[in-house]
């Protein structure tokens, strides 16, 4: 059922896109959200498998991509965990008195840059416009993202009930990730459906309650000025520039990194087309912004910002390409390990710009 839902998403677009939540996940260290610690390298793109994407590897290994928070608007005290009445693009905040004072400088926008959409600045309340300031449903994710599956439209992760809190998940059996105090460690995440935005890594002591207050005490610093794009099929690693964001972030002065992968150049981020009959305008490309398309490109009107490497673009990263074109890669960063020892929980938080959604996954770390 999950496979059919995602496959139809790619073919139909907006209506199903808003109902099939399967967008990305922490790849390593292995997170608690990866049920049964499925190897992400086992993933095969759609069209080349008869399996269920939510039980395979890739960006939804162990159905981890189904742990997120829905309805998270800037200025609201909590996430609604319900589908917005006007949809995930153009819906309005669920609280009665939202704060429209977004904190992100315009230079770090990843979607609708310059507000050229016919809907104007429709992402202004979405998480990436105020990195770290929006609430989450749970610091390690909500099972299925919503409190209910909305008539079968949402999916529930393996080994969980809809609405379960990721902070209550037990550590993965047989996994022992060790970092050296004061050293440098690697962490990586994968994109399944790209919503722009940016992300941060942070720590909380294992003995503490896994809350935003705890994780905000120990944000981790990134090392260097690049990401490594690491292919799971043993192709050669790539180095691409990273963009650091430390203005307007929470915790104050913390450094986030922009998601380096651009979507196609329209509200929907894929299937852009010049079709004035589209009532919501989601597929109508932005006419006065966008990066030129390279040869063989599948975004006919360019991308939201420049493409960093071959095939490193699009909204639907899971697609029908196979072989050397397959998008089986991880965005890897080097992190500064604090000079402490003990047992900790590493949290990856991805604040997106296209939707009012936040992905939060947690992994266990021992610092020696």
Describe this structure in words.
The protein has 368 residues and is mostly beta strands. The termini are far apart. 6% of the residues lie in helices and 21% in strands. It has one domain (2-367). The protein has 4 helices and 13 strands.
Would you kindly provide a brief summary of this structure?
This protein has 368 residues and is mainly beta. It has 4 helices and 13 strands. The strands form 2 sheets. Strands 2, 3, 4, 6, 9, 10, 12 and 13 form an 8-stranded mixed β-sheet that branches. Strands 1-5-11-7-8 form a 5-stranded antiparallel β-sheet, with no helix packed on it.
- The arrangement of helices and strands along the chain is HHEEHEEEEHEEEEEEE
Number of strands: 13
Output the structural class.
mainly beta
* Overall structural domain count: 1
